[in-house]
Amino acid sequence: MKRILLLRGAELIVFAFLATIPMLVVNPYALGLLTLLAIYGILLIGLDVTVGYLGQVNLGHVAFLGLGAYAAGLAVTRFGLGMGPALLAAMAVGLVLGGLLALPALRLDGPQFALATLSFAALSTTALNELEGVTGGAQGLSLIRPPVFGHVMTPPLFYWLCMALLAVVWMLMRNLLASQWGRAFEALRDSPIATDAMGVGTYRHKVAAFSLGSGLGGLAGGLYAFNFQYLQPQSYTYDLMIILLLGVVLGGRKSLWGAFVGASVIVLLPNLLSNRHLFQIFSGLGFAMALAAGVRGLVKKTTRPFQALAPVAAMGILVVGGLVVENTENWRKAIFALMLFSVVVGLPEGLMGFLSIFLAKLFRVPHAPLPEPSDLGTVLPSRAADGTPLLILDDLKRHFGGVKAVDGISMTIRSGAIHGLIGPNGSGKSTLVNVISGLYPPTSGRVQLRGSTLPSGSLFRVAQAGVARTFQNLQLFGELTAIENIMVALKGVYRSPLPLVLLGLGRPEERRAQSDALALLDLIGLKDQARTKAKDLTYGAQRFLEIARALARKPDLLILDEPAAGLAHPDVIQQIEIIRRVHQRGISIILIEHHMDVVSELCDTVTVLDGGRIIAEGTPEEVKRHPKVVEAYLGQPIQPELSGDASPLPA
Amino acid sequence: MLKQTAFGTLVLAALGLHAGDTVKIALTGPYSGGSAPMGTSTRDGSKLAIAEINAAGGIQVGAKRMKIEIIERDDEAKNERGALIAQELAAMGDLSGVIGTVNTGVCMAGDKHLQEQGITKIICPAAGSASMTQWANKPDKPGVKENSIFRFAAYDGIQAAMVVEEAINRKFKKVAVVFDSTNYGVSGRDDMLDQIKKQGNKLEVVAQEKFNIGDKDMTAQLLRAKSVGAEAILIWAIGPELAAVSNGAAKIGMKSSLIGGWTLSMSNYIDNAGKNGNGTLMPQTFIEEPITPKAKAFIDGFHKAYKVDRMPSAVAAAQGYDAVYIFAAAVKQAGSTDTHKIKEALEDLKEPVKGVIATWNHPYTKWDPADVATHEAFRREQVVMGMVQDGRVVFGNESDKARLIKEATGLTPAKAKTKAKAKTK
Amino acid sequence: MNASIIGQMAVSGALMGLVYALIAYGFQLTYATSKSINFGQGELVMVSAFFSLTLTNLGLPYWAMIPGGLLFGALMGLVVERAGVRLALEQRSEGWILLTIIIGLFFFSAAENIWGRDDRPFPTPISADPIRVLGVDITRLEISVAVGVLGIMGLIELFKRRTLLGKAFEAVSADRDAAELMGISATRTVMLSYGLSGAVAALAGILVSPITTVGPTMASALILKAFSVAVVAGLDSGFGVVLIGMFLGALESLSSFYLGSGWREAPGLVLLILALAVRPTGVFGKAVIRKV
Q1: pLDDT digit string (tens) for B242-262?
Q2: What is the number of CB-based contacts under 8 A between chain A and chain B?
Q3: Hey, of A58, A106, A107, A112, which one would you mutate to test binding to chain C, going by the most C CBs within 10 A of its CB?
Q4: Among A38, A626, B352, C163, which one is most buried in terms of CB atoms within 10 A?
């Protein structure tokens, strides 16, 4: 509890302090800057949803600021609405247009996503500029703050409104991001494929995240409109977007505090740098800090020479420049650039990323203890293994151009079985499970689960139907902890609707999810490493974790794609033990494996593939002696590499 | 959070810095980015005047002689920056006044903070009509009673009237109106269309074409104008894109001449249009020709101080220069550095101010929300038609030149205010 | 409306499009080796153009100035690589996005203070007088842009295919890890790609400056379009950028004519979003199959 108290305490103190400023300071300039800081805080929290949590470079956020501002402005000037409804309208515009943009942008990532959002921003500027009849075009739109409940919105009142909204947004977002939604956003960034395969649904979450971030952009836009009371389409362009992006990364991604600190830097720094005395103080301080950090990093060998020296050099240029250059106002942009350069190079995790490590060391706050694990029986109820047909493949084919990776496979997997799938490299095993699990649509043929047709071509819908899988090349959510990896996939725990989650009423569910996830971690022997980030686990532990995560889906059928690949011998033994335990709970398993001893140890039935076709089927012993199998394994491998693990498949 | 409070303390410390025996004047404008040539020219013109005044010992304020202290702020032509700078200046407490601003949008976003505190500002050289009309009476709302915002620039109303007049005088019938998509360009278009109507619809607007900042290929716009038979291009735009219009017209063999706002005299237009720019006409308040001793001294002084052989924008520089002298005269007359008293002095300047553009005789009068001209310094007769010829701006009309030389030698009184007002309204 | 007017617009639009294509090609070069692009490429175009202008003002003849400008561009490309990209790539972070933006900001401010804020003409011996080809007015200057763009792209492609260094470049582009195993230094190849990209940016600056003038903001509009061209064509598509660039340029010109000049960019932007939604890796990009 101590941790929570400290965190909440810090938030409370900061907001209380900010709230008292108008009583202490009468300087309207300081108040103006702080008002803008609150607005940008909301804006950057929204941007952080896509940039931080989804991990995408979003260049369209500034458009939502503009559209929100115009929505609010027009609501007031054209429709005579009050401030409250105008702000709601601004937010709604962001939510809706954000959702719409997410539809085409959904399939994209990296530079393509950046460009799609950038184009949207350019389009919206054009529209605001050209629709002169509505927006006033380039000549701008003047508006006044309508009174709220009969009170004229003086600067202090407006400041309080902005701060209050920032606090509300802060709380709601904190609740949301700490919930299943936030985890899903992060999971999406680390591995969209696994997110789909765990039945979370990339589509829904991406749209939701983008729409939410844009909605906050719209809200910030509404406040922006009432703050400046004069809008022009040219204000919301690429230049400003770049500054916003810098703010998020400088402050530290995936952090509300980071967004706030980033907003402070981009709002305050350029405006304060105009003052020559402040500039000299900042550059001096910056140089001292860079020097201290650089020397420390070099001596302790924690940073590379470039990382240690570049900020020192940049700040050094500033200090010297400050003495030599006559008119620093002329060089304002260069000064800003040098300061940002030092921070980005020296602190790649952003200011808050750095501070949080520092503070964590300082206070050594323990995490809240985890609840007791649930009973495995409730998490993973035993089911009857009656030997009836569970999964039926009927003449399944998947061709890539002229390559027949899977070429007419019919087989049956019985309930309660561990069904081995083996074959030389390129025999089509991986392609087959990729077709079953929905990654690739089949070229022809059918897959039936318990008598009904399994959806094809959608990892998400197959996962929803009760099939879970692991991946040959690990697809864990590296930035999430072990327990969170499982919680993302947990089926049937999260029922609260979004509004309750936003209000922080999803906590009981969260405890229950933790208990359930712990039970599964216990099953694979990783209960003690629940709080370790997945990327920091040992390779073996990562393999086990993938199985636990798949089990969180409470699947009817579990597909294990080479679960022992690359494991050291002791880990192989443990892996076998884990698979046994899972099997004991009545879960049917398809096991793809190269280790013949693992297959012999575990499987009841084994199917052997070669060249995309079945060449043998039977018990492990029968199969091992089958002449075609011997030939396939010992004869000259003539097929091209096709298993999908080493090289990209031909188009 | 520590950082946060540190920032706050520093702001306060910085704001409370030295109050002393100086007249504090803030110079603002875009000193970087696309509008910077105008912003820096204005600033440098102003600084030249300030340096001259300080070298002569400063301004006589009551019993003391005080030097001028400059506070310089770059608004980057961004409304948001402009608004914050205005807030900062408004909060300073001991500021005597503000001179500057190029972009009408920045005036719209920022000046209200100054006006609320009654800080005297001379807008220079932003010419868009809206920056003054925002204070005047409107159909739906009355204007402000007291106004501390003045303008020292040939505002678009005057300029548009001259442009339309020139086109009519040159016997054009069909014209294309071309403008950029900024506030300046669009409001210029409105002023020109308005003037065409006012001057009896003698011109037929056959095409209205727009371009964006940064566009370099104007072929489509010009072809459209050409295909409907435009004889002249009336143009309103802020930047180097103007040259692209001239060059594009030459490329497609369009012989129509360009007539437009004063920005056509900026070096970035003249240089880049080269010989395609010859014959371009624009209203000018100052032409970089040493026709009077005062003009010669100013031009030489500018070239020497800033190590250039030509001003990026002579008009902006000259206006920045004269604005400082007018402001200084107001400080002297007020006998105080108090911005409110300076405002009152400005509204009733007793002594004529000898500037490089003209001799300013009572440039402003008491603010009347029904008549923005009370806070506008320029009248029709201070503006002349300039013409581009072989890389320089020359007088488009020799009689203007003769008149100005005559005025400078003091043979005729500077102006008759009431007559001028009737002409421009 | 006759065909010659449409032709006129399509041609002058497409010629502008070739400049987009050249800058887009600079993006492709660095993306191929390092999966990173310089978001400050526009500033590189600008400072190189200013530097070339300075060379000209010092009395260097046009043809002698070009190599100097290219060399400067390459050097600046290397500066970007060293200061902004290398560390981020080593740490496998996306810091390069911000750092390249920041370095661009610095270049911008430095250029404003060194060369002034005004737009200036760029002298060239090539005539800007129109000549008539098939009923379309076109200037020699525009033809020189086309020749220059296609020339340098052809040269670099030849270099990549015919020389040992060029083959190393291709190897790193195809598979960085495998190339390293073969003893090819990926770091050096990335440097090479940034150097080439800088030289390409410089040439774009030299070619386009006589038409657009030289000024600190000269490339800010160009660069967004070049980025669009690169991504729509596919960041790995080589000559695809030429087609897409010309198409986009011509489309802008035509939509400006038919829809009104304010809407000039709108059809291009809508097409762009749609094209990406249909072919995420670009029109000429290689399709990637999701694999696990």
Answers
A1: 888 888 888 888 877 889 988
A2: 116
A3: A112
A4: A38
| CATH 3.40.50.2300 placement within chain B | 20-154+289-378, 156-284
Within 10 Å of residue C190's Cβ, how many Cβ atoms?
23
Which pLDDT belongs to residue B421?
A: 39
Mean pLDDT of chain B: 84
Count of domains observed in chain A: 3
Per the structure block, which two tokens stand in for C8? 């006129």
* Chain B residues lying within 8 Å of C208, measured CB to CB: 216
Residue C292 lies in a domain: no
What pLDDT is attached to residue B215? 78
**Among chain A residues, CA nearest to B10:** A278
Total count of residues recorded for chain B: 425
Burial (0-12, 13-18, 19+ Cβ within 10 Å), B30: buried
Strands B392-395 and B384-389: antiparallel
B20-154+289-378 CATH fold: Rossmann fold (3.40.50)
Reported confidence tier of residue B367, pLDDT bands at 50, 70, 90: very high
Rg (CA), chain A: 29
User: Given this structure, which CATH class describes domain B156-284?
Assistant: alpha beta
Contact yes or no for A330 and C113 at CB 8 A: yes
CA distance C189 to chain B (A): 34
Mark whether A173 and A320 lie in a shared domain: no
pLDDT tens for residues B129-173?
Answer: 888 988 999 888 888 999 999 999 988 888 999 999 989 988 888
Q: Do B272 and C220 touch (CB under 8 A)?
A: no
Identify from B178, B181, B272, B307 which residue to disrupt to test chain C contact, counting C C-beta atoms within 10 A and taking the largest count.
B272
Across the interface, whether the CB atoms of A473 and C292 are under 8 A apart is answered yes
The chains found to touch A (3+ Cβ pairs under 8 angstroms) are B, C
Cβ separation B216–C16 shorter than 8 A: yes
Q: What is the rounded average pLDDT of the residues A242-254?
A: 86
Stretch A122-143: mean pLDDT, rounded? 87
Number of CB atoms found within 10 A of residue A457's CB: 12
Tell if the CB–CB gap between B72 and A329 is shorter than 8 Å.
Answer: yes
B387: tokens are 């013409």
Radius of gyration of chain C (CA): 19
Rounded Cα gap, residues A110 and A483, in angstroms: 28
Q: Which of residues 274-313 of A touch B (CB under 8 A)?
A: 274-275, 277-278, 281
Say yes or no for a CB contact (<8 Å) between B220 and C13. yes
| Nearest chain A alpha carbon to C234 | A112
Asked if B204 and B173 touch (Cβ cutoff 8 Å), the reply is yes
Residues A297 and A438 in one domain: no
Note the Cα A501 to chain centre separation in Å: 18
Number of domains in chain C: 1
ipTM: 0.87
Chain A residues in contact with C274 by the CB 8 A cut-off are 104
Distances (CA, A) of A648 to A190, A421, C290: 20, 22, 9
B84 touches chain A (CB under 8 A): yes
What backbone torsions phi and psi does residue B349 show, to the nearest 5 degrees? -75, 120
Residue B104 C-alpha, separation from nearest chain C C-alpha, in angstroms: 20
- Residues of chain C contacting B217 with CB distance shorter than 8 Å: 12-13, 16, 249, 252-253
For B128-272, list the strands marked E by DSSP: 149-151, 174-180, 204-211, 232-236, 257-260
Q: Which residues of A233-271 are buried (b: 16+ CB within 10 A; e: fewer)?
A: bbbbbbebbbbbbbbbbbbbbbbbbbbbbbbbbbbbbbb
Which whole-number Å values give the CA distances from B243 to B22, B177, B239, C14, C113, in the listed order? 43, 16, 8, 20, 23
Nearest to B150 by CA among B408, B304, B342, B424: B342
Would the CB atoms of A330 and C273 count as touching at under 8 Å?
no
